[in-house]
Amino acid sequence: MEVLTSADEACQIRSKLHRDDTQAVEWTQFDGLMDYEETLAAMEARAAAIATGEASEAIWLLEHPPLYTAGTSAQAEDLIDARFPVYAAGRGGQYTYHGPGQRVAYVMLDLTQRGRDVRCLVKGLEQWVIDTLEAHNIHGERREGRIGVWVQRPDRGISREDKIAAIGVRVRKWVTFHGISLNVSPDLGHYSGIVPCGITDQGVTSFEDLGQLASLSEVDSILRAKFETIFGRTVDGLPELVSALST
Q1: Could you tell me the strand order of the sheet in which 95-98 lies?
Q2: What percent of the chain has pLDDT above 70?
Q3: Rounded to 5 degrees, what are φ and ψ at 38?
Q4: Mean pLDDT, residues 212-228 taken together
Q5: How far is the C-alpha of 38 from the C-alpha of 123, rounded, in Å?
Q6: 120 is catalytic
Q7: What is the CA radius of gyration of the chain?
Q8: In the prediction, which pLDDT does 26 show?
Q9: Do 184 and 216 touch, CB atoms closer than 8 A?
Q10: For residue 78, what is the DSSP state?
């Protein structure tokens, strides 16, 4: 989606974004590096099945090999060096990077059961990340007009802020897909091939860059707990789904 982060006080995320029927969200963690195009196709198929009532809501946690994705607002001049494959993502936003050490969470939720409020959804996703960071002693913040989660870096200059998590979602038939990417320990040098999210005056950071060492599995555990406080309970995903998508 485009910029949708206005802090609407009517959005009480911890109540509005819960399902009234308390149906659980299927939670699947994938091992290895997942092919982007295959995962994107599988995600879109799952979102379509959710919209028709043939599948439950789902969260997929995974990593991709190094690549760049272009959102619908991507500017050609923001692709500085196509050192990795570039994919049209079909989401809002501009260029972003995915790669090892970055936790990608694809979020497939039925908004007909969660308030039909896309702004509230984005606020909830941001809060999910902020709560996860807080559990690791990192203070993340929202910024009006800039989707994602930011960390102040006074050690790098006055008013300097670095982005630690990107958020890009699309909604079709009131079902969300795409989601968030959280930098745990990626190679931040890989961002040099793009202008991330079209922002030239700020940088990017990670848990590791901030001196907070954590494994993806440790971060995943906190992500799941914090997700449940905002969106409701989860259940483990099906092993055969993992087998079908893993490469």
Answers
A1: 86-88, 67-70, 95-98
A2: 91
A3: -65, -40
A4: 96
A5: 29
A6: no
A7: 17
A8: 97
A9: yes
A10: G
The pLDDT value recorded for residue 145 is: 75
d(CA 180, CA 170): 11
Average pLDDT over residues 20-38: 93
The answer, yes or no, to whether residue 191 has pLDDT greater than 80, is: yes
Q: Would you call 228 helix, strand, or coil by DSSP?
A: helix
**Coil, strand or helix: which one is 30?**
strand
Task: Supply the pLDDT for residue 221.
Answer: 97
Alpha carbon distance, N-terminus to C-terminus of the chain: 29
Identity (one letter) of the amino acid at 146?
Answer: R
Name residue 162's amino acid: D
Distance, CA of 182 to CA of 159 (rounded, Å): 22
Task: Indicate the pTM of the whole model.
Answer: 0.90
The candidate with the shortest Cα–Cα distance to 93, out of 206, 195, 198, is 198
Q: Please give the structure tokens belonging to residue 224.
A: 């799941």
CB 100 within 8 A of CB 186: yes
Q: Pairing between strand 67-70 and 234-236? A: unpaired
Asked if the model's pLDDT at residue 10 lies above 60, the reply is no
User: What count of other Cβ atoms lies within 10 Å of the Cβ of residue 4?
Assistant: 17
Supply 45's token pair.
């198929």
Q: Give the model's pLDDT for residue 111.
A: 97
Specify whether the CB–CB gap between 147 and 167 falls below 8 A.
yes
Read off the pLDDT of residues 95-130 as tens digits, 9 standing for 90 and up.
Answer: 999 999 999 999 999 999 999 999 999 999 999 999
Backbone φ and ψ of 103, nearest 5°: -90, 115
**Which among 58, 105, 197, 245 is annotated as catalytic?**
197
The backbone torsions φ and ψ at residue 65, rounded to the nearest 5 degrees and listed phi first, read -65, 165
Of 115, 118, 247, 232, nearest to 172 (Cα)?
A: 118
Check residue 116 and report its DSSP letter: S
